[in-house]
Amino acid sequence: MLIPLKLIWTSTGTFGDRDYDQSYGETFAASRSDFDTVTRVPVRVPFPLGGDYTYDQGSGSTMDPPQDYSRPTTEEFFVYVNGPNRLGYFHDGNGGVTTVSTTLVLTSQVVGCTCYGDSSGDILVQTSGMDGPFTYLWEDGATTLNRSLVKAGTYRLAVTDVPSGAIARATILVGSNPELVVVIEKAGGDVTLQVSGGTGVYTYLWDDGSTSRTRTDLPSGPHSCVITDILGCTKEVQPGGQPRPVFLVAQPHHPGPGRRQRLPPGSHHQAPPLVFVRGLD
């Protein structure tokens, strides 16, 4: 498609005689400049190939002389959009073009998650370069500009400037404080908790009220301890206590007072059965 930029007519001669001929007038040819919307460059056609015009001034003619044309330099006559970039085209007044470029820019601020695995992250996004209005589409389907209470991870956003169709995209990473990691060291009834990760100093709270990292002669049975870091992030472990001892006790068979046990021919004496007895707490 060609968009006219400038058209200049120049007289190339006259015809007829005003005093003797019924048809008389003047001929014109033009130079012209158009804008090609496919290649986005001006196309200049020099005089006299830009056009021709016959101005009949004879009796009864209603023709007007040809009119020069120049597109206003303040008119944005064409817009090209590529991703977040918008390029507006203006006539320079001489058959050429000037351009004005604008870019839709996204900037973000991220508040990471306080505790590993929770949903306390925030994403704040600002737009600049264009006035909008805008539409917003996150990869997970959300349609708001900002996000709150999100998990740690990667988030992708597309913002569209509605008037121009320019689209800016952003990939935003929400981080998290390290995970609390607890290694349980056991030796009999002695238990020591080795803690890493999280943030700052750790506190300990056992199910029996103890606040020590190390337990000596921890009674048998299930036990639990909640470790908390300085930000309030927690991790619960169940180290257990010293196992109860197991004894093997032979249970003899007594045939009864004054009786002897007779074995069937070919049989052998069998050892008494063993009974497992677990020690009591």
TrEMBL record:
InterPro entries, per database record: SprB_repeat
Q: Which domain of life is it from?
A: Bacteria
Outline the segment boundaries, as ranges, of region: Disordered.
242-273
Question: What's this protein's name?
Answer: SprB repeat-containing protein
